[in-house]
Design a protein that fits this description.
This protein is an alpha+beta fold. It folds into three domains: 174 residues, Beta-Lactamase, CATH 3.30.450.40; 110 residues, Beta-Lactamase, CATH 3.30.450; 65 residues, Winged helix-like DNA-binding domain superfamily/Winged helix DNA-binding domain (Arc Repressor Mutant, subunit A). The chain is built from 17 helices and twelve strands. A five-stranded antiparallel sheet has the order 2-1-5-4-3, sandwiched between helices. A five-stranded antiparallel sheet has the order 7-6-12-11-10. It has a two-stranded antiparallel sheet with strand order 8-9. A hairpin with a 3-residue loop joins strand 4 and strand 5.
Length: 376
Amino acid sequence: MSEQVKLSRLIAGIYDAALEAGRWPEVLAHVVDFVGGHGGCLLAKDAATRDIAARWQTGVEPHYMRLYTETYSKLGPLAALSCGDVGQIVSVADVVPYDEFRRGRFFQEWAQPQGWVDVAVAMIEKTADHCGYLGISRNASNGMVDDEMRRRMALVVPHVRRAVLIGRVIDLKKVQAAAFADALDGISASVFFVDAHARIVHANIAGQTMLDAGDVLRSVDGRLVAIDAEVDEALRDAFIAAAGGDSALGIKGIAIPLRAQDDKPYTAHVLPLTSGERGHAGRTSRAAAALFVRKAALTTPSPPEVIAKSYRLTPTELRVLLAVVDVGGVPEVAEALGVAESTVRSHVARLFEKTGAKRHADLVKLVAGFGSPLAV
């Protein structure tokens, strides 16, 4: 097989490892074979502590790899290597006199027992807090690092560097996606991301619970379906419109009333994913719209003490306020709390004074404004 064919296949494998990090040991083995080495590692050196960690390796027995991490990494040539130029390839003799290297503990206690005689190291990454390296060792049968090995490493190093950087970006995106999913799962409303054909791209925990119950919305062959035929048609039209852009649906989306099988009211809000940052999300996924569904009911603030602190309410005033929201007017509150109506009226008057409300409906709106969007 010609060098060019081997290199092309090797480069393809390197970029495969960028997408699937678990393939690095196999890819490193091919790199070692291509450049004429014995073992290989991707290493990271902490700029502050100078600690060295092996991210991936091949051709080194686990026992020796553990010894390297625990003890010998601080004694080897990489420990003495300063962060130079990215892509630069150096051998032991470029870092320390070779005779001195052979007399040291690293060689005698760690390298020599494995048949190590030399290593070629290339910096592939340099940041404020660490440097990344590709290291390829040579044993007695390979001989010392020579010009041919350096030439072949120079062909490979730029691709390894790009693959490591790509892998880092992918890992970051995975972390961001996981954090986003966790945030959605913490929302009390049911949230669905759907494409133009109502296919479900993602549902948060509340949304999946709603689908499992099947009394408002359900999933049919992966599509979001409302139990009410008219509502289902309205949702489908909204999703299609969302895929067409904000001009068709409106940047702020639309609201659609829903009803469960027990006739309890729900509200669905359809938000197009085609504006600003939402547009970037829409272009990088199949989702055309986000659907938020929640029961049309007043949620008690969590914790209620937030309202009390905001308006300096006494415990009794807070109790009356919440009772107004839960049971209604003065007679009902008085009966529920077991106090005289005149007492409730006095507390309500103080509530009006402290909150600026002028009627009971204003008190209800005030409490509604403190409703938590988080699942409990």
